[in-house]
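FIELD: query
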Amino acid sequence: MRHLIKSGLLALALLSAPVVGHAQATRTWVSGVGDDVNPCSRTAPCKTFAGAISKTAAGGEINVLDPGGFGTVTITKSITIGTDPALGGTLNASTNGILINAAATDTVTLRGLVIMGPTTGVSTGLNGVRILQAGAVNIENCYIYGNRAAAPNGNGIVALNSSGTLRLNVVNTLLSENGAASTGAGILVQPTGSGSAIVSFNHVTAIDNARGVQLDASSTSGSVKGTIANSNLSNNTLAGIHIVSAGATASIYITDTNSSNNAGGVNSIGAGAVALVNRSSFVGNAFGFQPLSGGLIQSYVNNAVTGNGADGAPTSTITPK
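FIELD: result
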């Protein structure tokens, strides 16, 4: 009897003991020949980003061992994905390549990734990177293309935070073949609710999209502001740079940038829209400068606006001191 009582007490103790989960690593690995049942170590890598992210601690990093397609992934915590030079890729047919819905204090970094919707036949990629919430998103040395779905999708990168201030930094990244006939963009920043965004686009190439870069503060009580520098936003079917807001501030400082052979070089539409342009070129567009409905284009005298169907005129001219 005493033995039975001891056995019963031991069983109860085991049942009530806390379950200890497997520790997450701060650095994990994926490989084209990996397996998601692995621990995602360098010597036993996982097969997909989705498989690796569950085994990676918040603030950690998923590295790519060799070239391959590693699937779509949803991000809900601070994380870095990718390796330079670009080795990792996702194929996002009829879905988003990477969905970011993290905490407002989280930082997500995507580095050295190829994110592609199918470009043969009907391109059904929704968005390359869709951002719903994060503190900061850094996208570096990536190639994002082939997202041709109709509105509200069809963007290489789209930021839609409904609260807080998102900091979106895109560096050394190529965006092409994104957008439908009249909607979508290489990069669309369109916060809603009370959301705001501060953007920095440096050495960004946005070509052969519906629009190159679109900043839209029409649906928020917050604001959108930032810079475009050292970039090429050309050969887009609509505008290279499209700034729009009827009320809240949507402002961008454009410097050392080329926006050519688009339907519009730079559009500034609505009373809240402001584009400040310095040392940049607008050549071969249907319209060079196009301020509409109270939008402002403030131009330094050192810009090249020529050879367009209609060059247009800035709302004000600034002479550098």
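FIELD: remark
Helices lie at 2-16, 49-53.
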